[in-house]
Amino acid sequence: MCNVSVMLVTPTSAETIEEVTGIEVHGEALVITTFFDPPRQLSGYRLVSADFLKRQIVLEQPQKSGDNHE
Hints:
Blueprint: E1 4-9, E2 14-26, E3 29-34, E4 40-43, E5 46-51, E6 56-60
């Protein structure tokens, strides 16, 4: 199979979506489809890397200005 995993990284957490079959761009949003779950719409993420040998895509939701917790 040629499906991939997508790692969603935020300033406070990381989540992996398995069995991803497609990613579509809908304006400012990304729609991720998988074999077994309904499509998932994500806003505010940007592509960090796509490693096709590892079959992994990393999307990051950058910290918004004013959200600095240092």
